[in-house]
Design goal:
The chain is built from 3 helices and no strands. By secondary structure, it is mainly α.
Length: 85
């Protein structure tokens, strides 16, 4: 594995892990009042496009990070749609 792959996996790990506390908090409390539907919709589509980009390039750090982030963001977006007041 090349150094660029290691840097990619480290960057992917850090950015994905930084997203986990917010996701866990949202899952536990089901409080979505502070989440913008528009922002999360655009964010989720953006993550999906990054995932497609990574697949097309066969850039596995990008694929790995965005697979996890898309699952978390999609779940939060679904909760926002379900629990909005």
């Amino acid at each position: 594995m090349q150094i660029s792959d290691w840097v990619g996996y480290l960057a992917a790990s850090l950015t994905t892990c930084s997203f986990v506390p917010q996701a866990l908090h949202t899952f536990r409390t089901r409080d979505v009042s502070g989440i913008s539907l528009g922002m999360y919709s655009v964010f989720t589509v953006g993550v999906a496009l990054w995932l497609v980009y990574g697949v097309l390039l066969k850039a596995w750090p990008i694929v790995a990070a965005n697979t996890v982030t898309l699952a978390l963001a999609g779940a939060i977006l679904a909760m926002k749609l379900r629990y909005k007041k």
